[in-house]
């Protein structure tokens, strides 16, 4: 009887090992899906050219396969602005007035998979800034400079072109201009634990000629996981334009608290 049990156990060992390997393979596939997506919704308080209490929504999609990695990020603001009526009393008026889209594709090069070539395209419309629209394209080289289980840092740089359309004022009509730029951007991530993550994103679009508008953006955020697919995000965004009309401010800030759902 003991011999039969021993023989049966030996026969089952390969099956158990195979089952364990299969489970590990399934977990690995789950950890690195080809497509990932998330939606974002929350409250936003804005200072600068406008004073408002707003609703912020966004959508992010990432595709990663072999040496290719592509991402698309779309954001829109539904603003409730403070305005004066005919009697001089202030009231909030709701209007959709700002949206932007950003896309970037990376192609990994080199044996260590640390370097990559990239193409980056961005477009923004903001009714209450000094520009009706701003768009840019750049391409260049980037590198994953630092990466551990808890932290990572990447940065890229390359030449590009920027196209701005200014907003018409009482004194000036709308004008458009294009300029060559050097674009540099960086992203730092750090996980304090399995539930809390810090991110710092920076991008600079430096015009090559004096007197042309240069753009600098920063977003600092802390994300806390509530449940498996739901996160709470606190963020501070700062946008700065070097050349604006006197009626507008150079710096705009956004302080937001949003909920993120991951697919």
Notes on the protein architecture:
With 263 residues, the chain is mainly beta. It folds into two domains: 1-32; 33-262, Beta Barrel (Porin), CATH 2.40.160. It is built from one helix and twelve strands; from the N terminus they run H-E-E-E-E-E-E-E-E-E-E-E-E.
CATH H-level name of the largest domain... which superfamily? Answer: monomeric porin ompg
Main structural class: mainly beta
General shape: globular
CA radius of gyration: 24 Å
Mean pLDDT: 85
Distance between the termini: 52 Å
CATH arch. level architecture of the largest domain? Beta Barrel
What is the CATH C level class of the largest domain, in words? Answer: Mainly Beta
What order do the strands of the largest sheet run in, or round the barrel if closed? 1-2-3-4-5-6-7-8-9-10-11-12
Main sheet characteristics: 12 strands, antiparallel, barrel
Beta-strand content estimate = over 45%
Work out the helicity level. 10-25%
Total strand segments: 12
Q: What is the total number of structural domains?
A: 2
Low-confidence runs: 3-19, 25-29
Summarize the structure.
By secondary structure, this protein is mainly β. The protein has one helix at 2-31, and strands at 35-47, 52-65, 68-84, 90-109, 115-126, 131-147, 151-166, 176-191, 196-207, 215-225, 230-241, 251-262.
What attributes does this structure have?
single chain; 263 residues; mainly beta; Porin; twelve-stranded antiparallel β-barrel; 65% strand; disordered N terminus
